[in-house]
Amino acid sequence: MARGDLYETLELKKGASLAEVKKAYKRLARKLHPDLNPGDKASEERFKAINEAYAILGNAEKKKQYDAYGTTGAEPPSSSGVNFTGFDFDAAQAPGGGFEDLLGAFMNAAQSPAEKRPRQGQDLIYPITISLEEAFAGKRARIAIAHTVACEQCRGEGHLDASRKTPCPQCGGSGRVGISHGAFSFARPCPACGGSGRDPGRPCPSCGGTGSRETTDTVEVNIPAGVDTGSRVRLKGKGQSGVRGGPPGDLYIETHLLPHGVFRREGPNLKVRVPITFPEAVLGGRVDVPTLSGGARLKIPPGTSSGQVFRLKGRGMPSLRGGQPGDLLVETTITAPAVVDEKGKELLREFARLNPEDPRGYNAGD
Q1: For residues 322 and 334, what is the distance between their CA atoms, to the nearest angstrom?
Q2: What value does the mean pLDDT take over residues 288-315?
Q3: N or C terminus: fewer CB in 10 A for the chain?
């Protein structure tokens, strides 16, 4: 068994996760492998130690027991059973892609290879900027979309005669190919047929085997009334082409609203600030209020304060789902009178004398 703490052997803090254990092992194995350190006994001993440590910490059950009791209850074998002797760490030369690819394939060797079946194409998201007025009323837009479509010659398969049932010449119909390095071997999906075992046929000369071609289409989309920033309109089948004859993905038109100079949107509601005069605030009155659907008049009750909010039902944004529209929230702001003569000032002084009050309600010295 590896001497000392197994986490220290892998240069990790105690209790490191399985992902951290795997990452540390890969890094140290690449650094200490005997082929990269010929004649270095110390590196060879450390290489053995990290393999022994990984045999425990790389196993979820053994790691759990080691974390709890400091032991797995049994000595692991002196060799991990994986022979890396003669393995070439140059990914450009090693069959299967070198150490990274080989180690990953080893850890997933028990998994069944996935057959290359038809798959739906990727969805596309196209952002569009609209005004608040357009979001309120709805809009019909024409948009140029760059995407891929299925190749007409091979119908998106990427190969000609792809429907043939003859066995794949590379794997003999098994769907797997073997890779061996010394005592270490495993099977992976055949790269020629993708694990199907069938002859994929000749690559399509029109699309180069990709099964698709790039194009730009002009689409018309109806932006419904009531959309907000982040709302999406779906156009089915207008995304990227499918893979190996699969259906195309969808196109989503995502709306983004421009800021407005008068209104501020708050969910389904709209908010607007309306200035009122000092006499209107004191005596009350009726004032004109802007809306996105025409003008409206609001009754201001006597004694209205600045910052008071009134609600006009149904004068906000339309509902996307056909429900009740939002409301218009009107916030009043009192404007100071522009006193230009002594008579006006005298009237205000008389008003203040007859109506003494302290709206602040606190002492400046407190």
Answers
A1: 37
A2: 94
A3: C
Neighbour count for residue 99 (Cβ, 10 Å): 19
Residue 245 binned pLDDT confidence (cut-offs 50, 70, 90): confident
Q: Average pLDDT, whole number, for the chain?
A: 81
Q: How confident is the model over 65-101, as pLDDT tens digits?
A: 888 777 655 444 444 444 444 344 444 444 444 555 5
Is residue 169 scored above 70 in pLDDT?
Answer: yes
Q: Do residues 316 and 224 both lie within one domain?
A: no
Provide the residue range defining the domain that includes 208.
124-164+201-257
Looking at the fold, whether 239 and 137 belong to one and the same domain comes out as yes
